[in-house]
């Protein structure tokens, strides 16, 4: 019996081998075609429906999408749609020629037309791709359903309640359904539904676990885009924590203004600040997406780097315009609801001041006793080895910072005659400071001459005499150490010379 089976298996293998061999296109055998510049034209001609994934195989996002893509290929085996991948890192010319400037991206090419592909939204799973294809090819009648089956679902269901099914509203609703393949869409005309949720017709309801989350009244001017914004915004909680799972949702949100709260979740004021952020979020829902970033989470390092936030600076709020990537810093010490709301409103009104890498160099910045540094002048002044520089890092909106200004003036005047000492200050909120400074602002840092790359943080009493003593002591210390180091270098040189002579 076993022998017979083996024989059959061998025969089968042979057949496949022969079949494959006789085909001039060996790659046609696989579920997903590998497309290159060389075979794109031919592949496009051969398949009436060609679904192409442009991706970078080494990127995390690329791998995730390509897994979903392969899953879809398996399910679509034998259908009219052929799936193909283009490695956008290798096929740069082809991707450019096809205007596929970002990846991963999925395009559906129909009837050999390379100019007008349909754009498939980036899928969460293989099911999203299938749903997208199905909805594209189908019609509203496919989503007319008995709501009772979905109402109690854990997942959000988008319900369109329409008076007439041939109305324009229904088309707008259905075109939104195509773009959001990860969500359940249902059309119903059942008046009981509407009575139950206390609405009238021509309304879109978001329902989760039989509870109405939000309702949207369709208007003659309502566009597909507006409806998509409404659905995607209310699908999310008012404040979304940034994590590996939510990142894609946040970054693909049609809301292009993001408010980010950087905070330590374990801090004592977390609950209070989070609640203020949450209440502010409710008032800007369709305009600003509110995101929480836990600075204690090491995986958030890249977001923090992007926004140039260091963990000791938390809690703080940044607003970013996702269109031009300009960021704005909330200029306040206290993060209460009113302050957050005012900041968001001033941003929307175009009145917020962007955060710069460096402020412009102020006129006559070195004419006053206290030198006013900015990002561009910081290193040149502080790291000058011929001067001892005492620098106040301050936040202009902080009471504690401002309280130090008179003392700093006093200190500068007291040291007016000493040319080798510079008293300076810098606005740490408006200038990027490229130093690993510990602690928080205001911060008093000394860069002693001869050892200017060394930063000595002052933690003593905030009194003139103490500051003066500190400067002198540190200058003396730096001088002594330099002498010692020079002596050691000298000894070493002498020893080296001696060794050379002896050779
Ligand atoms: C593919 O076809 C386009 C015209 O549609 C042509 O410009 C291009 O050179 C062709 N590419 C290859 C590799 O044959
Ligand atoms: C790419 O974009 C350019 C400029 O908009 C256009 O001329 C060209 O036809 C596009 N190519 C494709 C394949 O869509
Ligand atoms: C965001 O940036 C775009 C492009 O610069 C600009 O048109 C838009 O007004 C900005 N939005 C806000 C709220 O400043
Ligand atoms: C420091 O002083 C030395 C010797 O006078 C001079 O050559 C050097 O250019 C000075 N450095 C700076 C940054 O001013």
From TrEMBL:
Q: Carries keyword Signal?
A: yes
* Superkingdom classification of source: Eukaryota
Q: Which InterPro entries match?
A: Thioredoxin_domain
Q: Which organism is it from?
A: Solea senegalensis
**CDD domains assigned to the protein according to its UniProt record, in alphabetical order:** PDI_a_family, PDI_a_PDI_a'_C, PDI_b'_family, PDI_b_family
Q: Would I find Signal among this entry's keywords?
A: yes
Q: What is this protein called?
A: Disulfide-isomerase-like
**Residues in domain Thioredoxin?**
347-476
Q: Name one Pfam family in it.
A: Thioredoxin
Q: Which GO terms describe its cellular component?
A: endoplasmic reticulum
Q: Which UniProt keywords apply?
A: Coiled coil, Signal
